[in-house]
Design goal:
heterodimer, A: mainly beta, globular, B: mainly beta, seven-stranded mixed sheet, four-stranded antiparallel sheet, 11 strands
Chain lengths: 114, 110
Amino acid sequence: QKEVEQDPGPLSVPEGAIVSLNCTYSNSAFQYFMWYRQYSRKGPELLMYTYSSGNKEDGRFTAQVDKSSKYISLFIRDSQPSDSATYLCASGGGTGGGADGLTFGKGTHLIIQP
Amino acid sequence: NAGVTQTPKFQVLKTGQSMTLQCAQDMNHEYMSWYRQDPGMGLRLIHYSVGAGITDQGEVPNGYNVSRSTTEDFPLRLLSAAPSQTSVYFCASRDNYGYTFGSGTRLTVV
């Protein structure tokens, strides 16, 4: 079982809709959680970073972490065609030593229809 | 622009050839890492470094070497390229607020 699971999609929604992207993770030692956006043929770009459970909001984006259920969510309000991309969730930390790399989900391909 | 710079952007190798993928960052980050991204597999950690002179293996290190002689540079060496190493390679550096990725090197081994 991969440590971070994410539905690959594609997820297609109309412009203006609220988008919900989700991940689950299995390693209870994970301490920080991130969402990256990746456009085609580009590197991942950090969208949201959260540490511990709770919500974090940045503009149209809200990240939510529930450590009790090991569930990570990203909500996008008023979705735009420019939001069309692959969204990667990632978790890490708490493993000790130097092995503090991130574990990524496989990414969800999101399509916002104009 | 500050960030992570990877070269080359594209490369085609023949099986058995060796090459070095270059990565440089100008943010003075101690932690740097290399990932490969394959369809259906996501991003997988190859090697990482927590500072100059210190490197360690990630999830998929076989066939790759790294060194870290300076804070800025973290090259990835393919010793004897194999078709299974056809992939997109990303270098990343990290501070307390997250990872910054380079734009990637698209490698094809024929």
